[in-house]
Amino acid sequence: MNHFLDVADYSPSEIQDILDLAIKLKKEYFVGGNKPLFKGKVLALIFQKPSLRTRVSFDMAMRHMGGDALYLSPAEIGLGKRESIADVARVLSGYVQGMMARVFEHEHVIELARWSSVPVINGLSDFSHPCQAMADALTIIEKFGSLKGLNIAYVGDANNVAVSLMHISVMLGANFTIANPEGYDMTKVAMDTGASLAKTSGTKITYLRDPHAAVKDAHVIYTDTWTSMGQEEETAKREAVFPPYQVNSRLVSEAGKDVIVMHCLPAHRNQELTDDVADGSHSVIFPQAHNRLHAQKAVLARMFEVA
After folding, report:
1. What is the DSSP-derived secondary structure letter of residue 271?
2. Active site residue 102
3. DSSP string spanning 165-218?
4. Active site residue 82
5. Residue 108 annotated to the active site
6. Do the bridges between strand 205-208 and strand 175-179 make them parallel or antiparallel, or are there none, so unpaired?
7. Which residue among 132, 246, 288, 296 is the active-site one?
8. Which domains are delineated in the chain?
9. Which residues of 170-204 are buried (b: 16+ CB within 10 A; e: fewer)?
10. Which of 53, 106, 129, 302 is catalytic?
11. Is 131 a catalytic residue?
């Protein structure tokens, strides 16, 4: 069964193959539209956490390629509460040809995949965000041609987005640096996986506290919200800790002149990312968001085994 739960579950060549397909499908879409390769297929969209980009990009990806999507809100399923995850997986497997799940706990998406007889895609969990990483890599490739030899700097909370970005970066030949405050580090599992991937590819991972040191010689500066969904009770504490990690014009000026600035959105403007940077010449945050659509078409195509 072809599930897509983490980029690290695949080889670098398999990830690159999906990205190459994404580039092809994006070109097709703008030239004459995509072929209806998903005709007769329905993707169940299971949400514990709401999201603009995840819902719309997966829905439109299915539509563009001749399929359909079925949105299931938290209240409709009560995943793991009203009904067991194993039962949900087995019931939906008889109705649809694939599932995308955006969950709080990573174990929930693993459990779905364990019991499902159709492909399951991790649309986000507390551990990782592999679909975002695919769109990020696609965006970087469009700017620089490939990730090989690039320096990618992540500034801020070492969250699920940072984990997937680190893994895909080193897999595809980029060096990865992260600067985050003490107490907001990556999990040991994420770091150990990153170390193994970097050793295989010959790339380097660097963990720092100083954001200014992190962005030196960076080709990419990436940031994300200081407080993720589900962490709202920590907002005041985090807002007192993270201001030195704001991506602003001064920080961007300390990187290379061709640096691009990325953010997975939604952004809390003038907190982790200032307006002048978000809307400035280095920003690619909106092409990056749009690439969710095309990267996910490619992931779906490989999961459905139609391309």
Report:
1. T
2. yes
3. HHHHHHHTT-EEEEE--TT-PPPHHHHHHHHHHHHHHT--EEEES-HHHHHTT-
4. no
5. no
6. parallel
7. 132
8. 7-129+292-304 (3.40.50.1370), 132-288 (3.40.50.1370)
9. bbbbbbbbbbbbeebebeeebbebbeebbeebebe
10. 129
11. no
> Among 182, 184, 177, 266, which Cα is nearest to 221's?
177
300-to-129, 172, 304 alpha-carbon distances in Å: 16, 21, 6
The phi, psi pair for 164, rounded to 5°, reads -65, -35
Please report the sign of the dihedral spanned by the C-alpha atoms of residue 58, residue 64, residue 67, residue 71.
Answer: positive
Between CA 137 and CA 173 the distance in angstroms is 11
Query: Which is the catalytic residue, given 102, 167, 219, 302?
Result: 102
pTM to 2 decimals?
Answer: 0.96
Q: Which of 64, 224, 263, 294 is catalytic?
A: 224
Q: How far apart are CA 259 and CA 143, in angstroms?
A: 10
Annotated active-site residue in 263, 292, 294, 302: 292
* Catalytic position from the list 48, 53, 108, 264: 264
Active site residue 269: no
Residue 104 amino acid letter: F
User: Cα separations (Å) of 179 from 43, 205, 241, 248?
Assistant: 37, 11, 13, 15
Distance CA 241, CA 179 (A): 13
Rounded to whole angstroms, the Cα distance separating 100 from 91 reads: 15
Q: Using one digit for the tens of pLDDT, what is the confidence trace for 97-123?
A: 999 999 999 999 999 999 999 999 999
Q: How far apart are CA 199 and CA 193, in angstroms?
A: 10
Question: For 240-299, how does the pLDDT look when each residue is reduced to its tens digit (9 = 90+)?
Answer: 999 999 999 999 999 999 999 999 999 999 999 999 999 999 999 999 999 999 999 999
Q: Going by C-beta distance under 8 Å and a sequence separation of 6 or more, which residues neighbour residue 28?
A: 34, 35
pLDDT tens figures, 221-231: 999 999 887 77
The total number of residues written for the chain in this structure: 307
